[in-house]
Amino acid sequence: MKRNNLLMGYVFLAPWIIYFVVFLMYPFFLSFESSFLSVNILMPENTSFVGFANWLGVIFDVLFWKSLFNVLFNQVIFVFLSFGIGLGLALLLNEVKFMASFFRTVMFIPVITSITVAMVIFDFIAGPAGPIQSSLVNSHVLAEPVFWKFEQWLPMPIIAVFSAWKWFGVQMIIFLGGIASIDRSLFEAADIDGASWWRKTKKITLPMIMPQIIFVMTMNIINGLQMFIEVFMNFDLSGGPYQSALTPVLYLYQTGFEQMKMGEASTIGLMLAAVIYLLTMMQLKITSKED
């Protein structure tokens, strides 16, 4: 009986195991092997072993570190905005009883909106001829409209604002789920003691939803460092003037499919994976200490 149950367990696990091996493990080992080779996908017969040349090339590649700086700059702004908005709205909507489902649905609409459509609309709204800059110019906050795509330091903050608007709804729902799972007797005891709303939030709500906070921060790091569509739609593969919007994934795509250097592209991908791993471990260590 136990043997049959074990066999059935493996049968149900088989689709995931096949997916993991074929689409995750095999590409990883293939990329690791390619990182030591000079590979041109148009002329695979000319593949040759180059040792650590690709790794040294990426380590000393100014554009790779520039792309990494760009995306980290973007993520610092995005994480603070999306985390603050998502958590703030979750705390607010948890107190709202009238039409609560309606407000939650409205707040979640940006998440289910196509990122392509959302970026086109956002580009118009935030553009030089858009309503935001027009209002700022008319109120004399700006002397003249700003072409943010051609500035050195504006592309990443602007895209971070867009990303925060696009994805704060996911974080809000996760935080709402965490708040809903808290034992209500803790709040009732705090009410008896005369605790204010802020004290209950600080001493009960935030500590109790720490698993959700850690999860959100971790996923922000992983997904943010892999940003591609937002910058590709605005700057193609060039990364814009000064390479101010170049990201590691954009640079990887450019190296692999435009320059046809799959060995270097594989190395960039592995370097990015290592950076994501290190930053994730650092973040988990910091949050676990605070917990």
Structure notes:
With 291 residues, the protein is an all-alpha fold. It has a single domain, classed as Orthogonal Bundle (MetI-like fold), CATH 1.10.3720. It has 13 helices and two strands, in the order H-E-E-H-H-H-H-H-H-H-H-H-H-H-H. A two-stranded antiparallel sheet has the order 1-2. The longest helix has 34 residues, at 62-95. The model has no long low-confidence stretch (mean pLDDT 87).
What structural keywords apply?
single chain, 291 residues, mainly alpha, MetI-like fold, two-stranded antiparallel sheet, 13 helices, 2 strands, 74% helix, 1% strand
Question: What coarse outline follows from CA principal-axis ratios?
Answer: globular
Q: Helical element count?
A: 13
The largest sheet is: 2 strands, antiparallel
Beta strands, count? 2
Average pLDDT figure: 87
Unreliable stretches covering 5 or more consecutive residues: none
Give the oligomer, counting copies of the same chain as homo and different chains as hetero. Answer: single chain
CATH superfamily: MetI-like
Quick description:
The protein has 291 residues and is mainly α. The chain is 74% helix and 1% strand. It has one domain: MetI-like fold (Orthogonal Bundle).
